[in-house]
């Protein structure tokens, strides 16, 4: 199959990102091709089928990694780690940092909208790349890619019982007599593949935005971001406690030297 100059350029760029030269470049091209670029063509020419396969392979790779990394963790904890790692937000973030946003082949209908479905496209492309590697290089090829790009994000913290960010934010703001409100500000993507963007407000002040595959997930992400920015997250508290301890230790050392 003959590829256009743009397609060939993006295939080469994608291979550099993945770190593997495909024996069948057509599989890789399909993995980075948005459905908008294949309107009127068989479904095999876009990432839709590969995404389906990649979702299952990725789940198995992550489950296997978590199983061996945390031998004392129960099923619930392992499940939470897997869900956190393969979530849309996680995969789209990894794919964006790798540079996949610049190699996705979009159709003219999507280009004209400023690529409004980029968030979900990045998630889908990551899963499709995993499938493409599995088909072209075998399970080892897929495992090496996931092991290099996604598994390093795995943490035991992901196994903890999740807090409800919306409830946590409401509790914090109500200490000041404020009840947070949420507003849907944007809907991205086609009807079958929606991504929602919500903002959370404290009175008239916008605190943060969040993105998700459902309105509920978007609101939850907005609340989580707001908690982080306001310094209410567990991470920020831990950082503050660490800084306080370091400061205390420095004072003690200075005093002992004096």
From TrEMBL:
Domain DRBM: 164-232
Subcellular location: Cytoplasm
Residue numbers annotated as active site: 55, 127
Catalytic activity: Endonucleolytic cleavage to 5'-phosphomonoester
Example GO molecular function: metal ion binding
Cited InterPro entries: dsRBD_dom (IPR014720), RNase_III (IPR011907), RNase_III_dom (IPR000999), RNase_III_sf (IPR036389)
Pfam families named among the record's database cross-references: dsrm (PF00035), Ribonucleas_3_3 (PF14622)
CDD domains: DSRM_RNAse_III_family, RIBOc
Keywords: Cytoplasm, Endonuclease, Hydrolase, Magnesium, Metal-binding, mRNA processing, Nuclease, RNA-binding, rRNA processing, rRNA-binding, tRNA processing
EC number in record: 3.1.26.3
Cofactor(s) required for function per UniProt: Mg(2+)
One annotated Gene Ontology cellular component of this protein: cytoplasm
Binding-site residues, Mg(2+): 51, 124, 127
SMART domains tied to this protein: DSRM, RIBOc
All copies of domain RNase III, residue ranges: 11-138
Subunit details: Homodimer.
Purpose: Digests double-stranded RNA. Involved in the processing of primary rRNA transcript to yield the immediate precursors to the large and small rRNAs (23S and 16S). Processes some mRNAs, and tRNAs when they are encoded in the rRNA operon. Processes pre-crRNA and tracrRNA of type II CRISPR loci if present in the organism.
Protein name per the record: Ribonuclease 3
Native organism: Slackia faecicanis
Organism classification: Bacteria, Bacillati, Actinomycetota, Coriobacteriia, Eggerthellales
């Amino acid at each position: 199959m003959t590829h256009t100059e743009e397609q060939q350029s993006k295939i080469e760029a994608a291979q550099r990102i993945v770190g593997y030269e495909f024996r069948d470049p057509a599989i890789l091209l399909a993995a980075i091709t948005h459905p908008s670029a294949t309107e009127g063509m068989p479904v095999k020419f876009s990432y839709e089928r590969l995404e389906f396969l990649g979702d299952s392979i990725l789940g198995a790779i992550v489950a296997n990694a978590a199983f061996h990394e945390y031998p004392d963790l129960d099923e619930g904890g392992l499940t939470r780690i897997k869900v956190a790692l393969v979530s849309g937000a996680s995969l789209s973030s990894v794919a964006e940092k790798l540079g996949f946003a610049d190699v996705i082949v979009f159709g003219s209908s999507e280009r004209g909208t400023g690529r409004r479905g980029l968030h979900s496209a990045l998630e889908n492309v990551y899963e499709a790349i995993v499938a493409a590697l599995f088909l072209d290089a075998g399970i080892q090829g897929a495992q090496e890619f996931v092991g290099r790009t996604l598994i390093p994000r795995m943490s035991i913290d992901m196994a903890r019982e999740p807090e409800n960010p919306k409830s946590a934010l409401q509790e914090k703001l109500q200490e000041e007599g404020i009840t947070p409100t949420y507003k849907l500000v944007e809907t991205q993507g086609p009807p079958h593949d929606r991504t929602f963007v919500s903002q959370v407000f404290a009175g008239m002040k916008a605190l943060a935005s969040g993105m998700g595959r459902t309105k509920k997930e978007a609101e939850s992400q907005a609340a989580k971001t707001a908690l982080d920015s306001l310094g209410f997250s567990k991470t920020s508290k831990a950082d503050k406690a660490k800084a306080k301890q370091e400061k205390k230790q420095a004072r003690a050392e200075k005093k002992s030297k004096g």
